[in-house]
Amino acid sequence: MTTKLIKFPGTALGEDDFSKQKVLFNYDELKGDFAWDTGIAIGSYLAGLKAGIILGARCTTCRKIVVPPRLVCEWCYRPMEEVIPLQDTGTVNTFSLCYVTWDMQRVKEPEIPAVIEIDGASPLHGIMHMLGEVDPTKVHIGMRVKAVWRPAAERAGAITDILYFKPIEEK
Amino acid sequence: MGLRKVAVIGAGMTKFVRRAQETAKELSWQATRMALDSCELTIDDIDAVCLGTAPDSFDGVHMNGEYLSDGAGAWRKPYIRSYVGGGTGVFVPIQGWYHIASGLCDVVLVVAEEKMSSYYPHAQAAFMTIFDHTTERPLKPNLLWIFALEMNRYMQTYGISKEDIARVSVQHKRNAAEHPCALLGDANITVKDVLDSEVLAWPVQRYDVSPVSDGAVAIVMAAEHIARRVTDKPVWVEGVGWALDTTHWTNRDLAYPRYVEYAARMAYDMAGIREPRKEINIAEPYDPFDYKALHHLEGLQLAERGQAPQLYIDGTAARDGNMPVCPSGGLLGVGNPIAAAGLMKIAELFWQLRGEAGKRQVPGHPRRGLAQAWGDLMQVGTVMIMGR
After folding, report:
1. How many CB atoms sit inside 10 A of residue A156's CB?
2. CB contact under 8 A, A99 and B136
3. Chain A window 105-124: which residues touch B at a Cβ cutoff of 8 Å?
4. ipTM for the complex?
5. A134 interfacial to chain B (CB closer than 8 Å)
6. What is the pTM of this model?
7. Domain B6-120+211-387, CATH 3.30.70.3270 — does that match?
8. At how many degrees (to 10) do helices B338-354 and B88-101 cross?
9. A48 — contact with chain B (CB < 8 Å)?
10. Is A23 domain-assigned?
11. CA-based angle B127:A42:A102, to the nearest 5?
């Protein structure tokens, strides 16, 4: 290629081309509104959250307890009929200190998303949620955490009924 | 298996740029024309067209495959568009391969295109819809999170340091300095530059990430009887593999890409490879983030679990090492126009195995190479093994 072909197509544009209107462009906004059905398994999960309980599902064949619950086990493809309550405590499997928003704006105080292995579920089985009431420099993998729930009257049956997970004071 | 032999006989690509003046259709056409010219075929010689492009949300065009079809030369031909996230770039030549291996077609054009710059203000937001709409999106996630979470877990599980991972970014960006289409090639970048770059979502920093890009790549694939007439240096497809893992990504081992292993074993079986570390001369693992190259080398069985950084420390992965990794410069250096980036790796192997890679040429007449891509919600692995 580089031995035979020297020129490659493609024209790079820079910020100037737009700010000084050297090139034409067409700007438009697309809007889409959606209302998603929760389904059967996630529906029960959300109802559980509204009641202040994290639900999982157990596969009687694989003897696995997964979270959130689902109707079919992806390992053996058998129905997962048993929905069971788990603890609202867990262990940090991994976390990040995020200093940018979805549109790449910088923020001062980091958001702390984490995967939290929920107590009562199989090892390495967790959910993604946020950590709060914690010093970002002290967060570590393996840290024990507990859910901080929204007051019962304000819960809507959504993942945000858990405000965040906070560290369990080690005694 | 009764499969016909399939070769890659031509390749072409556009420059990878942050924002291209050309439209998506025009980029597709430029790469396609170059690929056809490189093997002196015309569009009339093409039996079918396979096109890969990422989610319609980047372009804001519904059924983007159909929209791009005229640029890709698909008018009045059997045409199929595939999309498996970042894995598309290596999946679409697999699709071209089975059109020919099955006996259905003799010559197939494979085109991969991406124009990420149209999405405003930043393409990252287009990725938000990959998160589950009910259980994850209310937390307002951004795409960096899943990489940061996976990278942190990988580092912690095996005790890998940020320096170990930064070496990958340095080597790929240095390799890319020799690539005429590269967006972020830098011959002088150091590990310190990577470690000092802006923190985005710790442990991910600016130079750990590949850039948002526009670009297109095209290759021509042909059955054996055509390939031998068209060129005296066909590059054969020796093995292909692909596999998916569960979308419940928080319910699996984030430190090891099991789906890449499944895909790799499928491809090694087909190619008759028993000892990949001895039999693969060039590896082009998918490297949208520097730690992903390491992660994938382990999934591909090209390193023990947690040992991939060693390949960069002892020079095995260097362009003149025993098993060069990403001599192209990879996504970190050349750029990451999603689908096109994966097919760029196939084009790189084509040029390397023919001895036509110019300044990037791996010494010692490499005989066999492997390209891999990965995508969707961290769950798909696509692998192709090519040899001469």
Report:
1. 12
2. no
3. 110, 113-115, 124
4. 0.91
5. no
6. 0.95
7. no
8. 60
9. no
10. no
11. 20
